[in-house]
User: What shape does this take?
Amino acid sequence: MSLPHIMLTDSQAHLLAELIVAPLPVREGSDFDAEVGEEDIATRGLDHETTLVDLPRLVFLGLVVRETDVARVTDLGMAVHYERQLSVVQGRLGDVVRFASAVEGSHPRLVQTLRLLANGDITLWAAVTEAASPKPSG
Assistant: This one.
């Protein structure tokens, strides 16, 4: 089963990540504006105004659920969070591959070692040792 494509703003993604770490306490009230404590938001490095806008949106999307005294992430929310994290890591790895291609002509041994490390064929320790070695391995 594939996940629905859900685009999140950076602040929504940050709030979702914080809710994975721990649920957010909410107080009884008629809407989220009056329920989420400013202190609870500030201690997590979140902006109060933005959180008051983002939290109802995440609930609407089904990524967060409001329970009696907390807002917590749903299974779908966890999946969306980790899919976003995977996408970031894949992008970073793509940058490493493009960097390796760009320097291949001038540093062929470095590129070969980097490829072996990226493929999991050697350990980080072996890669560092190889890179520090004055003579090519073979």
